[in-house]
Amino acid sequence: MTLLPYDPATRSAAASAFLARAGTAHRLLIDGEWALPHGGRYIDSTDPATGQLLAPIARGDARDVDDAVASARRALDSAAWARMTPAVRGALLWRVADLMEQHIDVLAELETLDQGKAYRTARFGELPGAIAQFRYYAGYTTKLLGTTIPTSIAHQPEGKQIFAYTVKEPVGVVAAIVPWNSPLLMASMKLAPALAAGCTVVLKPSENTSLTALYLGELLIEAGFPAGVVNIVTGYGNEVGQALAEHPGVDKIGFTGSTAVGKALLVAAQGNLKRLTLELGGKSPAIVMPDADFSLTVPGIARGIFSNGGQVCVASSRVYVHSSVYGRFVEELSQEAGALALGHGMNPATDLGPLVSRVQSDRVAEYVRGGIADGAEVVAGGVQEQGDGAQNFFRPTVITNVRQDMRLMQEEIFGPVVTVTPFDDVDEVIGWANDSVYGLAASIWTEGLSNAHRLAARVKAGTVWINCHSYFSPELPKGGHKQSGWGYENGAQGIENYLESKTVCAVI
Ligand code: NAD
Question: Where, by residue number, is the active site (predicted)?
Answer without folding.
Answer: 279
